[in-house]
Design brief:
alpha+beta; 1 helix; 9 strands; about 15% helix
Amino acid sequence: MTKIKCFYISLLFLGLGVQQSYSQTYRFKTSGFSVLEKNEKGKWGKWSDLSLVNILVTLDTNKNRILVYSQNIQLYEILSYQPESESESDLVYSFTCKDNDGIDCTVSIITRKKQENRKQLYITYNDHVIVYNIFTM
């Protein structure tokens, strides 16, 4: 009887271990960021000058969140995973999110295929866009 219990307990832990292997955490470092804003007339302005930054970004699919470890930590709760899109020049993974303040936004990780697979993280709101140049750790 105890051998059967040990077998089932072992099987339970094995099952939990396999479940954990499906969740993934992706880690990135940033090298710079820029901001684009709408003006008073609702027209997009120009991108700000690129500012150099070296901060950590994590995409945690187990906890459904994206964290940007800037001076003020930015937390984006993933509400839905959008279908991957691919063109001749870009590979795009997008997420519908809510930020720390409960404001809706879209977070996208874009690989620029024609730019030596350079990666960028776009955080898009109705009135502004933040872009980080990122690389995989």
